[in-house]
Automatic annotation (TrEMBL):
<feature type="region of interest" description="Disordered">
    <location>
        <begin position="60"/>
        <end position="80"/>
    </location>
</feature>
<keyword id="KW-0238">DNA-binding</keyword>
<feature type="compositionally biased region" description="Low complexity">
    <location>
        <begin position="60"/>
        <end position="77"/>
    </location>
</feature>
<feature type="DNA-binding region" description="H-T-H motif">
    <location>
        <begin position="18"/>
        <end position="37"/>
    </location>
</feature>
<dbReference type="InterPro" id="IPR023772">
    <property type="entry name" value="DNA-bd_HTH_TetR-type_CS"/>
</dbReference>
<feature type="domain" description="HTH tetR-type">
    <location>
        <begin position="1"/>
        <end position="55"/>
    </location>
</feature>
<protein>
    <submittedName>
        <fullName>TetR family transcriptional regulator</fullName>
    </submittedName>
</protein>
<dbReference type="InterPro" id="IPR001647">
    <property type="entry name" value="HTH_TetR"/>
</dbReference>
<dbReference type="Pfam" id="PF00440">
    <property type="entry name" value="TetR_N"/>
</dbReference>
<keyword id="KW-0804">Transcription</keyword>
<dbReference type="GO" id="GO:0003677">
    <property type="term" value="F:DNA binding"/>
</dbReference>
<keyword id="KW-0805">Transcription regulation</keyword>
<dbReference type="Pfam" id="PF16859">
    <property type="entry name" value="TetR_C_11"/>
</dbReference>
<dbReference type="InterPro" id="IPR036271">
    <property type="entry name" value="Tet_transcr_reg_TetR-rel_C_sf"/>
</dbReference>
<dbReference type="InterPro" id="IPR011075">
    <property type="entry name" value="TetR_C"/>
</dbReference>
<dbReference type="InterPro" id="IPR009057">
    <property type="entry name" value="Homeodomain-like_sf"/>
</dbReference>
Length: 190
């Protein structure tokens, strides 16, 4: 179901990826979709959870970041500046890679946009999607909630803005620049 959803979003765009079109692509009845997901937004949130999976916060070397959220045995305040920076870099590169996958960035931007005027979807997106990643980052970095939310806003907002303005994910060169900018601000604990 998730693959059919993301394929449909990729092929026709988020706005035209109706539940009816998604169900047809999955080879099931629309009513079957609505039995599990009451809205398109709820389906998309679950697709994003599946596409992103757990955050790779178990290792602080971006080349070996294969752990899962909360897998870091040291608290963020015990991490040195280099380790914190490496953890932040691996997270930025991970989310940039996920947003660049076919259908994922479009689905993320679309549901994010819909949530602006839909309080129920906004709550679902925050509680099911953002909060688990925020909590994992707070634990890994030893940072307060507002600072971690600012980190998420800066990174995700920048990546989605680029996707929305160009129709393409951010280039590797620009991801490098984003990493450098964010690392300067977040490398040391507040």
């Amino acid at each position: 179901m998730y693959a059919a959803t993301l394929r449909t979003v990729h092929d026709v765009g988020y706005a035209r990826a109706t539940v009816e079109r998604i169900a047809a692509a999955a080879g099931i009845a629309k009513t079957t979709v609505y039995r599990r997901w009451p809205t398109k937004g709820a389906l998309i949130v679950d697709c994003l959870l599946d596409a992103f999976g757990p955050a790779p916060l178990g290792a602080t070397d971006p080349g070996t970041a294969t752990g899962t959220a909360g897998g870091n045995t040291e608290s963020g305040t015990d991490l040195g500046s280099a380790e914190r920076g490496a953890l932040i870099e691996s997270g930025i590169r991970w989310i940039a890679g996920r947003i660049g996958q076919p259908g994922v960035g479009d689905a993320f931007a679309g549901v994010f946009s819909d949530a602006v005027s839909d309080p129920a979807l906004r709550e679902l997106l925050a509680s099911r999607f953002q909060d688990p990643y925020r909590q994992a980052l707070q634990e890994a970095l030893g940072e307060p909630e507002q600072r971690v939310l600012f980190l998420i806003d800066t990174v995700v907002g920048t990546l989605l803005h680029r996707l929305g303005m160009t129709g393409e994910p951010m280039s590797d060169t620009d991801v490098d620049a984003l990493v450098a900018m964010v690392r300067r601000f977040f490398a040391a604990p507040e």
